Amino acid sequence: MYHRIFQLVGRYLVLVLGVVLINFFLPRMLPGDPLDFSTGDGLDTAVPITASARTQLAAYYHLDDPTLTQLRSYLVDLFVGDLGLSISRSVPVADLILARLPWTLALLLVSLVFSAGMGTVVGMVAGWTPGKRRDRLLVSISGMLAAIPEFLIAMSLLLAGAVGLKWFPLYGGETVFTDTGRGASYSIRQALDIAWHLILPAATLALAGVSAFILVTRDATAGLQNEPWLIAARAKGLSERQIALRHALPNVAPHLITFFGLRLGGVLSGAIVVERVFSVPGLGLLGFQAIGARDYPVLQALFLLSGLGVLLAAFLVELTYLCIGSAGRSRR
Hints:
Layout (H helix, E strand, L loop, with lengths): L1 H27 L22 H10 L6 H13 L13 H36 L4 H14 L3 H15 L18 H40 L5 H8 L4 H26 L6 H7 L4 H11 L2 H36 L1
Helix pairs in contact: 1-12, 4-5, 4-7, 4-9, 4-12, 5-7, 6-7, 6-10, 7-9, 8-9, 9-12, 10-11, 11-12
């Protein structure tokens, strides 16, 4: 088992190196000069800087050096945990990420848990009677839902919930210009206010991702219908609900764990559109602004975080399978 774990770790270390290299070269493929920067929101013109300031910034970020020299400096800084300073904001990139990361994690975790739970239930209901009318109806609905872009779901929920019914705020992650207060009661009110602001963004991501969970669960459940143990369980007189929960769900769980892990790794990709529409101050909005500002350090840090998140999730899933397989062999 330990030999397989070492092989797994070695394979993922090679992948990490590939992600780091892609992360370095990808922002440099963008057109334009990163020193002709703006605030990144697309509403203003480039901020003029003096020639001496431009020279100092170019020297600090090694922009005038050969590409290999820039790569060496980047790897050295990355090894010591220095992500550099944001070009457009003049603050440490690590501080920007730490300030925005909780918003994105809260948004994605809530939406993933909801979409995974709802997708598992609906997928098992559809796959329990494959080919029947209920199965065809649920698969058709999930397929149509998967075809709707995230921004269209976001705009629909925004128009219905915030503009039409006025139940939810139009934008932002929390109410501004409120009495800060002190104590536990303020913390509770602040948490409820943040949850109120994140309902529509989380619902958007959940609706956009639930169809994938439905289809994965449906296919896995439909493939179990002719298994001998399922026929034996029915012959024992167990109800369909007991069979589904006690026997079918444990066999479907590995597929769901794999897909959940891969979805969990996409911290940045799934949040850019939604956070932009709802103005949630997370990593997605930060990435959108950094692209508009051609902010190399912020883009590199966000791309690296997203890539390493996917690799970490995939590594944990494979490690879990390896441990489960080893435990199963030891029992025999």
